[in-house]
């Protein structure tokens, strides 16, 4: 595994995070393209050890040198395989970014069939839960492990505006997971938060979206850096605003 840093401490990038005698280690799911890929690229550029995971590593839109692993977050076998590969390696930040968006219409949308609901809920909700549970030992092995879940402002019940039912429901459930995990993990000193990445120019957001993947990733990473136990259980935007549940 090509994951150890060969950067001398005197040559560290300005934003590199150093923990004791090692670099910060970040695991990102859904890192093959879009926001996930940008978070991986920017984290690696600032000196972090990045573990980028995706369903098909060979097709990832990532530069050489970024460690990548195969992971379908809704696959129990895949979760166990990656856990075995990583062993007891500490993870300082787990970013649950993998997600799907199926069925964008209203209640009569034929795309909102049983298969779409199953895939959406298994990926966006159960996938988050099982990823966190699988790598919790690695977070516990870190000095101050923390978790960031990519949710959406569409998860907000106060901002409900119709359509996109499966996606909205899944992101609301993912945010609810964050709120409850914050309570359960607080005694262990593991902070967790949920973030809206913005309307981003990705395959999911479309070319007319308002925010570039680069800007979203940079804002999100800044938010994750600022995540502490005082802010655990937060629901915020990529550019630093609180969102209503």
Description:
- There is one protein chain.
- With 245 residues, the chain is α/β, with parallel strands linked by helices.
- The protein has 5 helices and 9 strands, in the order E-E-E-H-E-E-H-E-H-E-H-E-H-E.
- It has helices spanning 34-45, 76-86, 114-141, 165-185, 213-225; strands at residues 18-19, 22-23, 25-28, 49-54, 67-70, 93-96, 146-150, 191-196, 234-237.
- It is globular and about 50 Å long.
- The protein starts with 17 loop residues before the first strand and ends in an 8-residue tail after the last strand.
Shape call: globular
The major beta sheet can be summarized as: 7 strands, parallel
Q: Give the integer mean of the pLDDT values.
A: 88
Could you say which structural class the secondary elements and strand pairing correspond to? alpha/beta
Report the end-to-end length measured between terminal Cα atoms: 40 Å
Strand composition percent: 15-25%
Please give the count of helices: 5
Helical content stands at: 25-40%
Q: Trace the largest sheet across and list its strands.
A: 5-4-3-6-7-8-9
Order of helices and strands: EEEHEEHEHEHEHE
Low-confidence stretches: 1-22
Count the E strands. Answer: 9
Q: Give the quaternary arrangement of the chains.
A: single chain
Q: What is the CA-atom radius of gyration, in angstroms?
A: 17 Å
């Amino acid at each position: 595994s090509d994951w150890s840093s060969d950067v001398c401490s005197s040559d560290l990038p300005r934003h590199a995070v150093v923990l004791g005698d090692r670099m910060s280690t970040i695991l990102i799911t859904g890192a093959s393209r879009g926001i996930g890929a940008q978070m991986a690229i920017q984290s690696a550029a600032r000196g972090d050890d990045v573990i980028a995971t995706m369903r098909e590593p060979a097709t990832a839109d990532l530069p050489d040198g970024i460690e990548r692993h195969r992971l379908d977050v809704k696959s129990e076998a895949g979760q166990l395989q990656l856990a075995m590969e990583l062993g007891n390696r500490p993870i300082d930040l787990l970013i649950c970014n993998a997600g799907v968006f199926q069925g964008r219409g209203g209640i009569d949308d034929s795309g909102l069939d049983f298969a779409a609901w199953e895939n959406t809920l298994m990926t966006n909700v159960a996938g988050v839960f099982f990823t966190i549970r699988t790598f919790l030992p690695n977070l516990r092995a870190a000095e101050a492990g923390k978790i960031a879940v990519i949710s959406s402002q569409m998860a907000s019940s106060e901002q409900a505006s119709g359509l996109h039912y499966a996606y909205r429901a899944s992101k609301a459930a993912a945010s609810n997971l964050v709120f409850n995990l914050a309570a359960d993990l607080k005694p262990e000193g593991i902070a967790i938060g949920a973030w809206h990445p913005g309307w981003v120019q990705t395959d999911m957001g479309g070319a007319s979206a308002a925010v570039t993947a680069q800007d979203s990733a940079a804002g999100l990473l800044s938010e994750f850096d600022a995540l502490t136990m005082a802010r655990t259980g937060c629901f915020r935007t990529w550019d630093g605003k609180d969102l209503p549940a």
